[in-house]
Amino acid sequence: MRTKTRLTCPCGTAITGTDEDDLVAKTQMHLTESHPGMDYSRDEILFIAY
After folding, report:
1. Residue 39 CB burial class (10 angstroms; 0-12, 13-18, ≥19)
2. What's the whole-model pTM score?
3. Which helix (H) or strand (E) holds 21?
4. What is the pLDDT of residue 8?
5. CA-CA distance, 3 to 10, in Å (whole number)?
6. Residue 11 gets which letter from DSSP?
7. Which end of the chain is more exposed for a tag (fewer CB within 10 A), N or C?
8. What is the domain range of residue 40?
9. How many domains does one find in the chain?
10. pLDDT confidence of residue 2
């Protein structure tokens, strides 16, 4: 299975991680800072990642 390291938030922000753990951490940080109240699990984040 290919490692997912990128995603584009519906707001248009592109997020890139060095690995899946980094991508999840950066995405959760983006959500906290830019979209308070929105919370996605690791599995949900990786589902939309590529």
Report:
1. exposed
2. 0.92
3. helix 20-34
4. 97
5. 21
6. T
7. N
8. 6-48
9. 1
10. 83
With respect to residue 1, please indicate whether it lies within any of the assigned structural domains: no
Q: pLDDT tens track of the chain, all 50 residues?
A: 789 999 999 999 999 999 999 999 999 999 999 999 999 999 999 999 99
**Maximum Cα–Cα distance across the chain:** 32
Q: Is 50 helix (H, G, I), strand (E, B) or coil?
A: coil
Q: Rounded to 5 degrees, what are φ and ψ at 16?
A: -130, 135
Indicate the burial class of 27 (C-beta count within 10 angstroms; 0-12, 13-18, 19 or more).
buried
Residue 30 domain-assigned (yes or no): yes
Look up residue 43 and give its amino acid.
Answer: D
For residues 7-19, b (16+ Cβ closer than 10 Å) or e, as one string? beeeeeeebebee
